[in-house]
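Can anyone check this?
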Amino acid sequence: MKLDGRRMSSNVEDRRGGLSTGGKLGIGGVVLVAIITFIMGGDLGDVISNVQSTGGIGMEQTSAQGEAQYEELATFSKQILASTEDVWSAYFSQNGLGQYRNPTLVLYSDATATACGTGQAAMGPFYCSGDQKLYIDLSFFATMRQQLGADGDFAYAYVIAHEVGHHVQNLLGTLGQAHSQMNRMSKADANRVSVRLELQADFYAGVWAHYENTMFNSIEDGDLEEAIRCASVIGDDYLQKKAQGYAVEESFTHGTAAQRMRWLKKGMTTGDISKGDTFSLSDSQL
């Protein structure tokens, strides 16, 4: 992905602390603990408890080279956020959606306070509608590479664009409506709504990629394959099979690998958010 000379967003909070060491899980281990906990029916509190019982969270790299790599990722993340600002501001303006309000990117290490509660690295990147901020522990990108086999700058960009997709949902009112519905549903039904939210965020990430390339001609050979590979390995079925050897469809919250790839590619191809209504479709149509 060609980003040389591109601006960096100023809508960033850097809350990262020093790299920690000694007797703690690397982020890859933490993520696997989190996956297994959720599969077994646990909630976020159970994840935190299990992570603490296994020694807490520690960054996997402590060398000067490792620190330099994290700084490169920080710069990259700021450039991708700037791109989403440019793309979505133009899209909202040109399509009568009002003024796009930029979210804030929070870079943190291990844990941080949010308007949605304490954010933990075990949760992976996430968006909080309460403060309109997206939170990323940069070590998640090491997890993608080392634990999931998903690597490359465009794969990392897709992760950020997906979280910005949730911000777009929030601005359009979709996120609040879905959360309101989920609060009145059984866990199984709420999971099905969650899948639709996540697939639509994948679609919006694809829409961003469509216009990112149109505006900046930045996508190179192999970039799309990187993003699609990433979408495939963060599907619920793939992660559950990796953790326990089988998948439980009723517990899916983000969609299958095939679904995530399909909606990402649809967004890239169409560049039209009106084509991304995941809520009016049946389960089989997703």
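Reply from J.R.: I decoded it. Strands lie at 12-15, 104-108, 111-114, 117-120, 126-128, 133-136.
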